[in-house]
Design goal:
The chain is α/β, with parallel strands linked by helices. It contains 13 helices and 13 strands.
Length: 365
C-alpha cells in the first residue's frame, strides 16, 4: 500500500496550485510517471539516484521506485470539526493519511483575498490546528467515558489507560497537538485505536513569493518560531514557480530554469524527500534481471520485517538475508563480482536493515 500525505490548508493559500503542479510534474526519468488515481489523489515517485545506478548495472526489464500518494484535501474552514462546509468528509480524509502537509500562506498579494482578511501564518496554523484538536477531543472523551468505569472498578490496565487518555485530553485542551506530548512509546497503546489527527507527523509548507524563495521572509520566520516545539519540518516553496517548472518537459531546461532562481532542486522534490524523511523511512533494494525495485521500510526494522513488505511468507519463513552494500555493488559492477570479492554478507533475524542495502532473502514456508 502506498504511503499517503494529505495536503491541507485554508482556502486561497496556494494549496490547489501546489497540487496541480504535483499533478503535472515531470518525473526525473521518463519511465517514472506521475499518475492520478482520483481527481484529488496523485502518485509521484521518490527521487533516488541509486535506482538509476542499479538500472545501469543490472539492465532489468523494469524499474519500480518508491511512490507517495498526495491527497488534496479541500480547504478547511472554521467550524469544520462541527461539520461546517464539508468538514466531516475532510477530517475523515485526513484520518486516513500517514502524514500531513500543511500549506500556509507566507506572501502578500492584494489580488488574492485572504479568507481571514490579513496574512498571518501563525493564526492560519492555529485555525487548522484547532479544528483537528477539537475532533481529537471528541474521540478521546468518548474513550475516557468507557475506560473510566473499568478504572474505577480496579482494572490495572484501564487505570493506566485512563491516566494516559487524561494526559492527552489536558494537553490538547491547552491548545497543543497530540504529537508534542512527551510520552514513552509503549504508552501510546491507549490511543492507537483512536487514529488521532494531531498525532500525525506534519510538514509545514511555507508558500512564498518568488523574491522570498531562497531567503524566506518575515512570515516564514514567524511560522518557524510557532512550530519550534513540534516534531515538524518547515520547507519554503513558491507554488507559482513550481507550476511553471511543471510545464517544462526537458530535464536540462528545468535545471536551467531553477538555476535562474538560484535553486538546486524544485520545491516539489524537497517536499517529496521531506515527506519520506518525516515518516522515518529508509529504502532497501532488490535487484535482478526481472526488476530492480525500491522498498520503503521504517528505520530500525530487522531483516524479517523488511522481507515481509515483499510478501508475508518471506517474514514467516525467514532463514537469512544476503546483503550487498550499494557502494560495493557500484564498485564491483555485479552480484557475482561482489561475491568473489567477499562483499556479500549473510545476515540473520537480528540484522537491522540499513538505507541502501541490496537484499536477497532466503525463506522456507
Amino acid at each position: 500500500m502506498a504511503l499517503q500525505c494529505g495536503i491541507v490548508g485554508l482556502p486561497n493559500v496556494g494549496k490547489s496550485t501546489l497540487f496541480n503542479a504535483l499533478s503535472n510534474a515531470k518525473a526525473e526519468a521518463a519511465n517514472y510517471p506521475f499518475c492520478t488515481i482520483e481527481p484529488n489523489v496523485g502518485v509521484i515517485t521518490v527521487p533516488d539516484f541509486r535506482l538509476q545506478v542499479l538500472e545501469k548495472l543490472v539492465s532489468p526489464e523494469r524499474v519500480l521506485p518508491t511512490v507517495i500518494e498526495f491527497v488534496d484535501i479541500a480547504g478547511l474552514v472554521k467550524g469544520a470539526s462541527k461539520g461546517e462546509g464539508l468538514g466531516n468528509k475532510f477530517l475523515a480524509n485526513i484520518r486516513e493519511v500517514d502524514a500531513i502537509v500543511h500549506v500556509i500562506r507566507c506572501f502578500d498579494d492584494i489580488n488574492i483575498v485572504h479568507v481571514e482578511g490579513t496574512v498571518n501564518p501563525v493564526k492560519d496554523k492555529e485555525i487548522i490546528d484547532t479544528e483537528l484538536q477539537l475532533k481529537d477531543l471528541e474521540s478521546i472523551d468518548k474513550k475516557i467515558q468507557k475506560t473510566e468505569k473499568l478504572a474505577k472498578a480496579g482494572d490495572a490496565k484501564s487505570k493506566k489507560e485512563f491516566a494516559i487518555l487524561q494526559a492527552f485530553k489536558n494537553h490538547i485542551e491547552s491548545g497543543k497537538s497530540a504529537r508534542s506530548l512527551p510520552l514513552e512509546g509503549e504508552d501510546f497503546f491507549a490511543i492507537e485505536d483512536l487514529h488521532l489527527l494531531t498525532i500525525k507527523p506534519v510538514i509545514y509548507l511555507a508558500n512564498v513569493d518568488e523574491a522570498s524563495v531562497i531567503t524566506g521572509n518575515k512570515y516564514v520566520e514567524q511560522l518557524k518560531v510557532a512550530v519550534a516545539e513540534e516534531n515538524a519540518q518547515v520547507i519554503v516553496v513558491c507554488a507559482a514557480i513550481e507550476s511553471q517548472i511543471a510545464e517544462i518537459e526537458a530535464l536540462e531546461e528545468r535545471e536551467m530554469f531553477l538555476s535562474e532562481y538560484g535553486l538546486n532542486e524544485s520545491g516539489l522534490n524537497k517536499l517529496i524527500k521531506a515527506s519520506y524523511a518525516i515518516l522515518n523511512l529508509i529504502t532497501y533494494f532488490t535487484a535482478g534481471v526481472k526488476e530492480v525495485r525500491a522498498w520503503p521500510i521504517t528505520k530500525g526494522w530487522k531483516a524479517p520485517q523488511a522481507a515481509g513488505v515483499i510478501h508475508s511468507d518471506f517474514e514467516k519463513g525467514f532463514i537469512r538475508a544476503e546483503v550487498i552494500k550499494i557502494n560495493d555493488y557500484e564498485q564491483y559492477k555485479s552480484e557475482n563480482a561482489c561475491k568473489e570479492a567477499g562483499k556479500i554478507a549473510v545476515e540473520g533475524k537480528e540484522y537491522i536493515v540499513q538505507d541502501g542495502d541490496i537484499m536477497h532473502f532466503r525463506f522456507n514456508v
